[in-house]
Fold:
Amino acid sequence: MLLAILLPFLSFMVRGKVFTGIICLILHITLIGWLPAAIWAVLSLNNERADKRNDRLIKAMRENKR
Structure:
């Protein structure tokens, strides 16, 4: 989470989203763009974690039915 706030572009790169990371880096370079880039990276990270959590829940529910 700290990486997403301080270096938003690197947060995307570490998660394998290179093209998105480059776009975020361009936005991050401008002083005004740093805040939107940080918000974008944090929201993206939270959405990815929520998707993984939902996938685990769905998998557990399917296994429970059997």
Notes: Residues 18 and 55 are 24 Å apart (CA to CA).
